[in-house]
Design goal:
Number of strands of chain B: 11
Number of domains of chain B: 1
CATH class of the largest domain in chain A: Alpha Beta
Number of domains of chain A: 3
Helix content of chain B: under 10%
CATH architecture of chain B: 2-Layer Sandwich
CATH topology of chain B: Alpha-Beta Plaits
Structural class of chain B: mainly beta
Structural class of chain A: alpha+beta
Largest sheet of chain B: 2 strands, antiparallel
Shape of chain A: globular
CATH superfamily of the largest domain in chain A: Aldehyde ferredoxin oxidoreductase, N-terminal domain
Number of helices of chain A: 24
Oligomer: heterodimer
Shape of chain B: globular
CATH architecture of the largest domain in chain A: 4-Layer Sandwich
CATH topology of the largest domain in chain A: Aldehyde Ferredoxin Oxidoreductase,  A, domain 1
Radius of gyration of chain A: 23 Å
Helix content of chain A: 40-55%
Strand order of the largest sheet of chain B: 1-2
């Protein structure tokens, strides 16, 4: 197979690096998550402290990067400081193509630097740069700009960096790339912070040849045309992911005010339609993707007491951000919501975890489990100023309460109570859907505890009539297995309609690899099992999963949920796991 | 819907993929060959239609790498076009390539004749004559010649192939006044 198969290993404890060809690994496991699971297994002690020297980060790209469009995701695997278990996060931007063009299929980061550094990979060379002067800069965009101006490779590089949240080890800090894309979930930013790694820059300018020149150009054009001319990606072309706000609200599935409600009376004001009409200022794309789904809003604010002075900020928005920092916090004013999104962007906080943590804190304050002595500011649904200050406190952690809240809602509710409305699944804060059984089972069973693992939220919207617990579990596992193939090819999940199995098979041919839909599906199953085993070796058990009571108290479009359904489903899943893992 | 050119549109005639031959050139003052205007009324070149629509996707860069039907490449080593953010994507994106100067500085500093003026504007590049000195890269006023991994230049020769893949109508291959 013609693809990038070199693995670069960077050791921050010894300031050394080496590259090794691992064709056999890429032949068997394609790339992305398939390869990353194997590399992490080789490199990590499963008992490693997520914030210790022994934690390992693997970044991996796929065999279609950059051979074909829409295959520009990078998969990061690490041990998550949020859940204490396997962490997996995917990002777009220029990261994947830069890694490929630099000549690598994967990059492994080990060890901990004694002093703050940032690392520059420039094709075959690696440089360790002193970052003492940059460390502690809370703004991720500022840190990114300083590095951008100091380093070469404009247009050919990625700058993956952390902001104040990563520096200060907020367990759900993200790593930001190209200003607006993120390794968002499960705390890769805190792992960077613990390694004293402010940024990883990868500059790449290389090429390789396909096995079949004519076939390659033909298949490329076919994929390109499908992406542009069919309507399979229309949703992402136009309003972007916020297109979901209005339909979910009408359906009664939009988590609002810590899921006390599923309809938000101001949803219309913060819908994809409203943002597009009043705020959309620009759209940009990830590298080698024609869709340009990154929607950027313009926020124009007058300076108080300085007539005719304005500041204009460009802020990237998506559905999950509108949910977490909007409906969950009762914020229905677009400008206020944009300010919250921007603050999360600047600090490099995962917006979803942040919103869920703050929503929990607001309700805990309402119920008197905590007082303003803890929260330092009166948190109230709808009060964006209070939430802006609370985000400062999450990063600065001036008291024990914020030290806890910076570790996630699961840990905080261990200390202060309020478990029943602490909306985390497997330790990961909840995504923005309350559609039915498949949604929540999806969060629980998904190996990342993410809605994107198996799209349970989507299954719930498609179900006509009833599905049995077993049918739901089988359907979720089947979907997650196929998604292992997509995330090994590093095809954007939004492009899954373009990369149908037969297209994937066809796309491999000019790269010199023969496969079949059957083989790919089998590989998806194997990767799923490998990942599950690694997760279990890191201490994951089904028994440790907790269902927040709140999900049974708020009605879904499928009615009130019943615990028995989950019990039956999880019993069956436990049985299925045994079968799968032997 | 984004702007999606049809495959036929902007599809350059085959001959534009090859350097123009010397017989199409007129000798001018100094050592330069300049294109004869009489051959064709309106030459075709790669042009910017609307830079504000650039989303920085870089599909043009990858198209440039595939431009040779016999020997397409995967990657950007030989791309003569670069997309980049304007000091961060909050300010948008831009695309950098040869703007076909009337007196190309890159041609003036090429010691081996590898770079010559192209009949329709811009330059032709004969790789077999190039020693990879890098003079042209340094001489280009707008930074539109890039260094390949073998040290030789990657420069746009205005073949127009990339325009077929620009999804947002930023680039076009069209007739321009000589």
């Amino acid at each position: 197979m013609r693809a990038r198969t070199k693995v670069l290993k960077i050791d921050l404890s010894r300031y050394k690096y080496e590259a090794e060809d691992r064709s056999e690994l890429f032949e068997k496991w394609l790339g992305g998550v398939g390869v990353a699971v194997q590399l992490l297994r080789e490199e990590i002690d499963v008992k490693a402290d997520p914030l210790g020297e022994d934690n390992v980060i693997v970044f991996a790209i796929g065999p279609f990067t950059p051979a074909y469009p829409l295959a520009s995701k990078t998969v990061a695997l690490f041990k998550s400081p949020l859940t204490g278990n396997l962490g997996e996060s995917h990002a777009g931007g220029r990261t994947a193509t830069s890694i490929a063009n630099a000549g690598y299929g994967a990059i492994v980061i080990k060890g901990t630097s004694k002093t703050p550094v940032y690392v520059v990979v420039n094709n075959e060379k690696v440089y360790f740069r002193d970052a003492r002067g940059i460390w502690g800069i809370k703004s991720s965009p500022t840190a990114g700009r300083i590095i951008a101006e100091r380093e070469k490779g404009r247009g050919m590089r990625t700058i993956m960096r952390i902001g104040g949240a990563g520096d200060n080890l907020v367990r759900y800090a993200c790593v930001t790339t190209e200003t607006y894309r993120h390794f968002g979930r499960l705390g890769l930013g805190a792992v960077f912070g613990s390694k004293k790694l402010k940024a990883l820059v990868v500059i790449g300018r290389g090429s390789y040849k396909p096995a079949d020149a004519g076939g390659y150009r033909k298949v490329y054009e076919k994929i390109f045309r499908t992406a542009l001319e069919s309507d399979v990606m229309n949703k992402y072309h136009l309003l972007g992911t916020p297109v979901n706000v209005n339909p979910l609200n009408e359906l009664g599935a939009l988590p609002t005010r810590n899921l006390k409600a599923v309809r938000f009376e101001r949803a219309e004001e913060i819908s994809g339609e409203a943002f597009a009409e009043f705020n959309l200022g620009r759209r940009i794309g990830c590298s080698h993707c024609p869709i340009a789904c990154i929607h950027i809003a313009v926020l124009r604010e007058p300076y108080e007491g300085a007539p005719y002075f304005y500041k204009t900020t460009m802020i990237s928005y998506d559905y999950e951000l509108i949910y977490a920092l909007g409906t969950m916090l009762g914020i229905g004013d677009r400008d206020c919501l944009l300010k919250l999104i921007h603050r999360a962007e600047v600090y490099g906080l995962d917006a979803m975890s942040t919103g869920v943590c703050l929503a929990w804190a607001t309700e805990a304050l309402e119920k008197g489990l905590i007082s303003e002595k803890e929260t330092l500011v009166k948190l109230q649904f709808g009060d964006h100023d209070a939430y802006l200050r609370a985000m400062d406190f999450l990063v600065d952690q001036p008291n024990d309460f914020y030290k806890h809240l910076a570790q996630g809602v699961e840990k905080t509710s261990d200390v202060y109570g309020g478990k029943e409305f602490a909306l985390a699944f497997g330790g990961n804060e909840m995504p923005g859907y309350h559609v039915g059984y498949a949604t929540h089972l999806g969060y629980l069973m998904g190996l990342r505890h993410s809605h994107l693992d198996n799209a349970g939220y989507s299954l719930d919207q498609k179900i006509e009539g009833e599905m049995t617990p077993r049918e739901v579990v089988d359907s979720l596992v089947k979907e997650e297995m196929w998604r292992q193939v997509l995330s090994s090819l590093v095809v954007c999940f939004f492009a899954r309609g373009v990369y149908k199995p037969e297209t994937v098979v066809e796309a491999f041919k000019p790269l010199g690899a023969e496969t079949s839909e059957e083989k790919l599906r089998e590989l998806g199953r194997e990767i799923y099992v490998e990942k599950l085993k690694l997760k279990m070796d890191m201490g994951f058990t089904l028994d440790s999963l907790r269902l927040p009571k709140r999900i049974f108290e708020t009605e879904t479009p499928h009615g009130m949920l019943k615990e028995e359904f989950f019990k039956e489903a999880l019993d069956y899943y436990a049985h299925k796991i045994k079968e799968l893992t032997g | 819907m984004p702007y999606a050119p049809s495959l036929a549109e902007h599809n350059p005639p085959a001959h534009t993929f090859f350097p123009s031959s010397k017989k199409d050139m007129c000798v001018s003052s100094g050592n330069f060959l300049i294109p004869c205007a009489k051959k064709r009324a309106m030459p075709k070149r790669l042009v910017i239609k609307d830079l504000e629509r650039c989303v920085g996707c870089g599909l043009c860069m990858y198209a440039c790498a595939r431009r040779s039907a016999k020997s397409p490449e995967i990657g950007i080593d030989r791309s003569g076009i670069l997309t980049t953010s304007l000091s961060g994507f909050e300010r948008g994106a831009t695309v950098i390539f040869c703007r076909a100067c009337e007196e190309p500085p890159c041609v003036q500093v090429c010691p081996t004749g590898a770079l010559t003026p192209r009949r329709d504007g811009g330059v032709s590049y004969k790789e077999e004559l190039c020693i990879g000195c890098g003079n042209c890269i340094r001489a280009c006023n707008i930074g539109a010649i890039f260094e390949r991994s073998d040290g030789k230049p990657a420069v746009c020769v205005h073949c127009g192939y990339c325009a077929k893949f620009c999804p947002h109508g930023v680039l076009a291959f069209e007739e321009v006044p000589a």
